[in-house]
């Protein structure tokens, strides 16, 4: 079979080219605001965070045991126990030759001491302590600034604050943090056939699952969502909805109406009220994806098929929203795995197939298709834990071939 490419399919743009083009047309639009640390979870840092102090601020013990001078340790040396250092209640004296201090985990290392011996390696009786074995200077001691030093850049601007980042910010004593305002996103479904879950279906009607799923993904990203609802396949109604949403939001995300059917009006309306950055990509699923602007508001037109909508949201809308929010996304981590059964594919489009990857007995990764690869079968998408990245020029994947994939379990979708 002759290899097809995007040039043999007029209007289709390679994925990487389209993604780079899209990001080049987007700038950060979310202004900065100062919020209490307790409200900063899932927000994006507007400024770099510089440590205002050393963490830890003082040398402290990593063990419950005894603080001493390493040179004084030895089976023949009984050390004088002169006090105790608790976390929050340090010993205020100084350890001299032949002396030691009982110390608890996290307690400040007394002056004069340079090491800690865990209590299991000590024998204490009548204020005398015998150390079992040799002691190295610095043993079981956490040094001041061992974690972070005053003046050090802790996080760069653009970092999304998760629970781990939040804990570090708290360790710096920060009461407030400068973050980007959440993006304001309008979410619209188009289609005469769509009904809200719970409504009765007439012949030919389906439930609107895309808007629910996309809203869930947006919620995980900390976005302020306006659910515009379902708009009928009427160009004038769609036009009014687009203009109203674009006037008060940073981005508009639509579902459906971007193909070439008689009732697909999204592209035509976008051309009328705004400008199209690109439309139709050399990818599967998700070929009929539209990107553009209505005035200064970014526009993302998702396909109507549910798998196509979810995949293009992940591949294109997510990085686009990150750019608008000032977030610096880390490069996608991909893995290599062995196909444990064939994957159907034709050359001509980059294919993001859904799979299940598992560790094999020999430690390698093996992957199988996660059910049907139809863009209308979302139940298979729900079973998947990875997306295969099958190259545009590649054909059928045979058993035993190596494929590239990314894990999707645990992501926002």
Would you give an account of this structure?
Strand 23 and strand 24 form a beta hairpin. Helix 3 runs parallel beside helix 6 (306-325). A 6-stranded mixed β-sheet has the order 7-4-6-5-9-8, with no helix packed on it. A 6-stranded mixed β-sheet has the order 16-13-17-21-20-18, sandwiched between helices. By secondary structure, it is α/β, with parallel strands linked by helices. The chain has 7 helices and 26 strands. It is elongated and about 90 Å long. Mean pLDDT is 94; it is low at 1-8. The two termini are 36 Å apart. It has helices spanning 15-24, 163-171, 209-220, 235-247, 266-273, 306-325, 378-383, and strands at 32-36, 49-50, 60-61, 65-68, 78-85, 99-103, 115-118, 122-125, 128-131, 141-142, 153-155, 176-180, 184-190, 194-195, 206-207, 224-231, 251-255, 275-279, 283-284, 290-294, 297-302, 335-339, 350-359, 365-369, 386-390, 402-407.
Strand content: 25-35%
Query: Strand order within the widest sheet?
Result: 7-4-6-5-9-8
Structural class: alpha/beta
Instruction: Summarize model confidence as the mean pLDDT.
Output: 94
How many individual β-strands? 26
């Amino acid at each position: 079979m002759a290899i097809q490419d995007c040039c043999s399919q007029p209007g289709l743009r390679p994925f990487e080219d389209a993604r780079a083009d899209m990001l080049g047309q987007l700038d950060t639009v979310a202004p900065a605001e100062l919020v209490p640390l307790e409200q900063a979870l899932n927000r994006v840092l507007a400024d770099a965070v510089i440590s205002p102090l050393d963490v830890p601020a003082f040398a402290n013990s990593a063990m419950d045991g005894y603080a001493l001078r390493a040179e004084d340790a030895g089976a023949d040396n009984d050390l004088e126990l002169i006090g105790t250092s608790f976390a929050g209640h340090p010993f205020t004296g100084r350890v001299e030759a032949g002396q030691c201090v009982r110390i608890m985990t996290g307690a400040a290392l007394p002056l004069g001491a340079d090491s800690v011996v865990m209590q299991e390696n000590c024998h204490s009786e009548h204020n005398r302590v015998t150390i079992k074995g040799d002691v190295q200077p610095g043993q079981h001691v956490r040094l001041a600034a061992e974690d972070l030093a005053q003046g050090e850049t802790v996080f760069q601007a653009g970092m999304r604050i998760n629970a781990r980042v939040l804990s570090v910010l708290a360790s710096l004593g920060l009461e407030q943090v400068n973050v980007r305002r959440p993006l304001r996103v309008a979410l619209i479904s188009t289609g005469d056939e769509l009904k809200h879950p719970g409504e009765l279906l007439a012949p030919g009607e389906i439930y609107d699952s895309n808007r629910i799923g996309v809203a869930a993904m947006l919620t995980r990203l900390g976005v302020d969502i306006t659910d515009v609802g379902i708009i009928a396949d009427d160009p004038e109604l769609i036009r009014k909805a687009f203009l109203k949403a674009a006037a008060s939001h940073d981005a508009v995300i639509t579902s459906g109406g971007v193909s070439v059917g008689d009732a697909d009006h999204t592209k035509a309306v976008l051309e009328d009220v705004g400008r199209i950055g690109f439309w139709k990509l050399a990818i599967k699923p998700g070929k009929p994806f539209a990107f553009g602007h209505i005035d200064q508001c970014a526009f993302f037109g998702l396909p109507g098929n549910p798998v196509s909508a979810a995949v293009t949201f992940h591949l294109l809308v997510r990085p686009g929203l990150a750019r608008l929010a000032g977030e610096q996304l880390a490069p996608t981590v991909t893995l290599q795995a062995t196909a444990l059964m064939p994957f159907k594919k034709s050359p001509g489009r980059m294919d993001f197939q859904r799979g299940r990857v598992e560790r094999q007995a020999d430690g390698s990764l093996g992957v199988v298709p996660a059910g049907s690869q139809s863009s209308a079968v979302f139940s298979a998408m729900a079973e998947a834990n990875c997306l295969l990245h099958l190259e545009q020029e590649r054909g059928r994947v045979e058993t035993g071939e190596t494929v590239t994939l990314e894990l999707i379990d645990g992501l926002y979708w």
